Amino acid sequence: MKKIKIATRNSMLAKWQAEYVKEQLKENHSDIEIELLYIKTEGDRFLDSPLFNIGGKGLFIKELEEALLSKDADIAVHSMKDVVIDLPEGLEIAAIMRREDSRDVLVSNKFNTIKKISSNSIIGTSSLRRQSQLRKIDSNIQLKDLRGNVETRIRKLDDGEYDAIILAAAGIIRLGLKKRITELVPYSDILPAIGQGAIGIECRSDDIKTKNLITPLGDKNTTLCVLTEREFSRRLNGGCQLPIAAHATIESNQITLDGLVAKLDGSQVIRSSQTGNFEDAEKIGSSLAESLIKRGADVILKNFIN
Asked: Among residues 44, 82, 101, 258, which one is catalytic?
């Protein structure tokens, strides 16, 4: 009997995702023993600072990857939006599972839609991607950092610290909190993070047996979409802490990628889309990024980083 150790963060959402992977593995391989290894990451430890101020890459995955490299764990389960573009040597994402709803959601006890939020209302989000797009909708909106797990964020809303908060739909849905969704925010208003809504399973590249167990859990269309989004981010030298967004969709044999780069104050949002064939999916990611660079996206990002 093979034993698999799954490295995961300790939040309710991370536990849900790890348990989901465990269930899927057991369905396909009833004879394997699976143990969950709970690990606190740097992003979990510093909850009183915006993520951008903490700095560094892989704030929610680095410690999980260290467990893989030290062989304390066999696989690590991530939200793909947290996964850095360039993985450590010796590791790979062996499967990207079928995507949940990739949109952001508005959760509010006062407003029905994002466009009906009154000026000077306090909106909770620590995401620079969300902040820039919200400011494009209303430059007078008051944004306040919001950290913590999903339940903590909703509790802060209910305690009156915020008039509304913006969260990822996938987390709300997976935790059974769908009733708290006020609005599924249209992609036209807020474009999601690269990889949002998708679960990735990481393992050591040389662990062929484990890789063979994981690979069947992947979803072809989701994988293609997420890899296209990640190629867009790669060309922009982006990361999950920058005001970069992209979302890919598939229809028939065509893939469409919508992407943007924005100034933090929302005064400039450079956005475009491209459509092409399956076999050109990742090329579409880099091509769309190039088109935004020609319109000044690199200048925005350089100024932001500096």
From this structure: 82
